[in-house]
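Can anyone check this?
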Amino acid sequence: PPGAMAPGGAPAEDLSSRVARSSRALEIGAALATLLVSGALLMLALGISVRTETGGVDPRWWPLVLSGIGLALSALLLVVALVRPPFERDDLEVTGRDGWARLVLAVVISALYLVAWDLVGFVLPTLVFLAALLWVFGRRGWKGLLLFPIAMTAFIYGLFDLVLKVPL
């Protein structure tokens, strides 16, 4: 309310100014970005070389299915963004400086992870990567920073390397 005071006697911030507004341009931009990324992934999937064409499930199959689904959903998102009124975003806060800093840090950590995976292998960089991302996005307890990365790394390694025989 106007004239309200925050603890310490400072004027309280008007929370209505921190609420995100609807934006057709944002929705169209997001749809176009996902359409572009999905199309690029589809092209990369088509470029996967297979030694023996089986006519069925091969190393190209999952990347093609996932990128094709992504492309279809992106196209649907674009149609929705063009024909519907923009979605209400009053349950979201406006992006602040902290959010942008976390985004940049997450991108840098992800790039370092890809380099480390190539140099060291899968297990150790994945443990560090997951713990670092959890820390960046607010997880501070030792259980979350330790147990979740170990469990996820073990699950992914077990699924791909041991069950599906896809070397990581």
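Reply from J.R.: I decoded it. The longest helix spans residues 97-120.
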